[in-house]
């Protein structure tokens, strides 16, 4: 920051003081008020938020964010994947920016903080940097990623995956929601509603990425800890299993002749559970969807299709557990045939120690309690990790409840996370 950076201790102290000043200028009430304001877009009667990606509610939230950005004189832009950017320019604009942010879309019965917090903490950080009169060396980009939740358009983390080159733009544009509306159409509606914004290229270089997020789990609250230094994101494999039997009359068909897909599926699920479930409760094995056909009371089920969501923090364990799924299905399907399809396979990842140390030091310097924590949920930082040094800051949420209308966090914790964020961003941008 400043013009040049002479390597003197006096200057380093000056820089530290400026960074500390920015942290003090985080305004807890303003940050809280902005959460409440954005929560009006898609507000549900039970106090939650239903703000689907590229919907009218999402557009309204983006317009409000742009208005706040304009008040801070931030440079605004978008990319072809529908990601929205607000830049605080650095004094060496040719260097790759430091990026922060998260998402504005929600689950259908979501809360006020998931995703929104990362965007608003980033905005609050920029406002504090402006108020402290700091011009960092690198620019700082705030991003609102398109469709993180994957609720209206599947899969999730769409905007960040295209930005990072993990998926192609073409592959997402044709995805349709349950009403047949495509991502392409949704993006056109957003574009028409927002002011004309310059188009920044996908896959442009980023120096580092830091995402603030509510924990979405109970650990920080249980440990009375304000700041979670996220060590990594646990890996996840998803599968679809289809068991094919044969329809038969529930009264006249002999058991020996039946190919009952449901009975076979029960055997399969039991065998999979016995294989996956561990005493320490580290493996997460979930059959969340189970469809029986024809699903009629007096017909022997002909087909069962079910989903498997398998997670484990150790990639090697995840790989070996997941590799056993197909053979176990085949061994336990009895007289039915079985087809197992793997839908996704994301390894566990570990964020670089350097960024984790920065976050931890910044929390400790402000006397905030902090601890290492693994993210059990996926985030846009997963894709950013592949293209630049990345990290995440977690704050507690009440009862660990998230993806729920009752999702809640405190004004104090929101501000503490933003204070750690602004320091970390300024250090990375220096
Ligand atoms: Zn989220």
Overview of this structure, please?
By secondary structure, this protein is an alpha+beta fold. It has 14 helices and 16 strands. The strands form 3 sheets. Strands 1, 2, 3, 4, 5, 6, 14, 15 and 16 form a 9-stranded mixed β-sheet that branches. Helix 4 crosses helix 14. The longest helix is centred in the last third of the chain and has 19 residues. The protein is elongated. The N terminus is likely disordered. Bound molecules: zinc ion.
Write the layout of secondary structure elements.
Layout: H1 9-24, H2 28-38, H3 56-71, E1 75-78, E2 84-88, E3 98-103, H4 116-131, E4 140-145, H5 158-163, H6 169-173, H7 183-193, E5 208-214, H8 219-222, E6 227-233, E7 235-244, E8 248-249, H9 261-276, E9 284-286, E10 290-293, E11 299-300, E12 303-312, H10 315-323, H11 325-332, E13 337-346, E14 349-350, H12 353-365, E15 370-375, H13 381-384, E16 389-395, H14 411-429
Parallel strand pairs: 3-4, 3-5, 5-16, 6-15
Antiparallel strand pairs: 1-2, 2-4, 6-14, 6-16, 7-12, 7-13, 8-11, 9-12, 10-12
Helix pairs in contact: 1-4, 1-14, 2-4, 2-14, 4-14, 9-11, 12-14
Bound molecules: zinc ion.
Zinc ion (ZN) is lined by residues 103, 114-115, 148, 213.
């Amino acid at each position: 920051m400043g013009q040049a950076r002479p390597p003197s201790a006096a200057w380093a102290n000056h820089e530290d003081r400026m960074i500390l000043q920015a942290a003090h200028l985080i305004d807890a009430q303003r940050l809280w008020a902005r959460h409440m304001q954005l929560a009006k877009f898609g507000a549900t009667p039970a106090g939650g938020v239903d703000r689907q990606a590229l919907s009218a509610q999402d557009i309204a939230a983006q317009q409000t964010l742009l208005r706040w950005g304009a008040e801070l004189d931030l440079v605004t832009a978008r990319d072809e994947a529908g990601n929205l950017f607000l830049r605080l320019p650095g004094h060496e604009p040719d260097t790759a920016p430091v990026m922060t942010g998260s998402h504005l879309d929600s689950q259908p019965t979501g809360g006020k903080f998931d995703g929104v917090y990362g965007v608003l903490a980033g905005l609050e950080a920029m406002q504090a940097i402006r108020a402290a009169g700091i011009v960092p060396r690198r620019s700082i980009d705030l991003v609102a990623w398109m469709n993180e939740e994957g609720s209206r358009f599947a899969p999730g983390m769409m905007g960040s995956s295209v930005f990072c080159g993990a998926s192609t733009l073409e592959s997402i544009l044709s995805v349709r929601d349950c009403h047949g509306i495509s991502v392409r159409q949704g993006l056109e509606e957003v574009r028409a509603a927002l002011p004309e914004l310059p188009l920044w290229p996908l896959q442009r270089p980023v120096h580092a990425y830091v995402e603030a997020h509510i924990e979405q789990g109970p650990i920080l609250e249980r440990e009375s800890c304000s700041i979670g230094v996220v060590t990594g994101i646990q890996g996840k494999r998803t599968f679809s299993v289809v068991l094919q039997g044969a329809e038969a009359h529930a009264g006249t068909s002999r058991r020996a002749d039946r190919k009952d897909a449901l009975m076979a599926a029960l055997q399969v699920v039991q065998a999979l559970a016995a294989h996956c479930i561990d005493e320490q409760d580290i493996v997460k094995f979930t059959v969340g969807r189970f469809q029986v056909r024809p699903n009629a009371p007096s017909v022997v089920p002909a087909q069962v299709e079910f989903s498997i969501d398998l997670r484990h923090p150790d990639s090697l364990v995840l790989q070996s557990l997941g590799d056993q799924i197909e053979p176990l299905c085949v061994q336990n399907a009895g007289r039915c045939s079985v087809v197992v399809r793997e839908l996704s396979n994301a390894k566990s990842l570990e964020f670089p120690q350097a960024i984790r140390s920065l976050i931890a030091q910044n929390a400790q310097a402000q006397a905030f309690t902090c601890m290492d924590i693994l993210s059990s949920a996926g985030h846009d930082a997963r894709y950013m990790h592949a293209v630049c040094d990345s990290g995440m800051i977690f704050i507690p949420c009440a009862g660990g409840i998230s993806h729920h209308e009752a999702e809640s966090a405190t004004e104090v914790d929101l501000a503490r996370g933003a204070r750690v964020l602004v320091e970390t961003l300024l250090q990375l941008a220096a």
